[in-house]
Structures are given as C-alpha cells and as structure tokens.
What we know:
Elements: E1 17-18, H1 21-30, E2 33-40, E3 43-50, E4 52-54, E5 57-62, H2 67-72, E6 77-89, E7 97-107, E8 110-111, H3 115-129, H4 142-146, E9 149-154, E10 158-163, E11 181-184, H5 206-212
Antiparallel strand pairs: 1-10, 2-3, 2-6, 4-5, 5-9, 6-7, 6-11, 7-10, 8-9
Amino acid sequence: MSVQTDRTTVKRLADRGRYDRETIDAILDEAYLCHVGMVVDGSPVVIPTLQARVGDHLILHGSPASRMLRGATTQEICVTVTLVDGFVLARSAFHHSINYRSVVVLGQAEKVTDEADKAAALDALVEKLTPGRIPFLRPMSDKEVKGTTVIRLALTEASAKVRSGPPGDDEEDYELPIWAGVVPLVTSYGTPITDPAMRMEVPIPDHVVDFRA
Length: 213
C-alpha cells in the first residue's frame, strides 16, 4: 500500500523521510500518545490522546461529547506521533539536535458504529497499554460500549521522519577540543503500585510483571 503523497513527502531534510509501512507501523506500535490536529470554530486545536494501530487503521476513542472525535469525522485531520531516542550534543550550539522517530498521518476518520467492532477496538486500546490484560478484566457492558465513541483513521496517507546517529558538525569544528556525542534517552517502568482501594490481597499478575520486563 502506498502511503506517500505530495502532502506527506518530507521536504525539509528529505533524506530522513520514510514511506514504508514497516517503519511507520513500528513507530505507531511503540508510541502510546498521539496528537490530533484540526480546526474547530475557525481556530487550530491540537489534542493529545491514546492511539492504537489495528491493521491499516489508527484507533481513537473518547466521550460522545468530544469535539475532537466529532471534528475528526467531518474534516481532514492531522495525527502525529513522536518518539525521542536521544540528545545529540554537537561541538556548536547550532548543530545540537535530538534523535527521533516520528509519523504524520493525514485524512478524515470514520466513526465505528458496529458494536462488535467498537468492542474489539476498545479491547485493542487496552491491549496496547498492557498486553495480555483483557482476559483478567470484567467484560465491558453494553452501556459502556454504547457510551464510548470510537473512530478510525486509515493509514493511506502517511510518512515517517527519522534522525539517528552522531552530530553533524562543520568540518573545521572537528578539530576543537569539545566533547560531542549522543546521550540516549531510555524509558523504564517502575514498580507497580497497588490500588489502596483493593478489598482483598491479589498478587501482581504475570502479565503486569512481563509488561515491566
């Protein structure tokens, strides 16, 4: 499937552009948070929200009263995701940068109306947060499914942009006695904190322990 269009073609530092679904999907699958940009009442609005990829679609959800979800199905939107991998320290302030992986998806979303599809999409969002947790949970009620709006955005117009590697200094600056390199940024998970409202002792399940690993 081709996802590169004139609108998604990277113009600035074009060599960092990536248009293969393997790269795009990997970034979307690793990231939890996305930002949804649109125009509301004539003004630009950008909303952060949880996202999950299911096949060829991005899944978003929220309250039926959400202006983001209503707007996303009536106009073109822009969804962005960014992962920061490290801080690039150069020999000059000008060439300092970050190593990153990002995705931009353009298009108009559609509302998921089939109740079974909605339930599956909501399960996918939970699975994104904590893989393997769904079998341990109380099933969603019909009221909960009906009271949640789910939309999906097709990955038909998208691009990734990636920067990796050491700093790119001016040639003459390589002779300067200044340390340069990359400081990796690593995200780690802390020890789970049991809900103080728990009314019985329940051991931390394996899927939570595995999630931390």
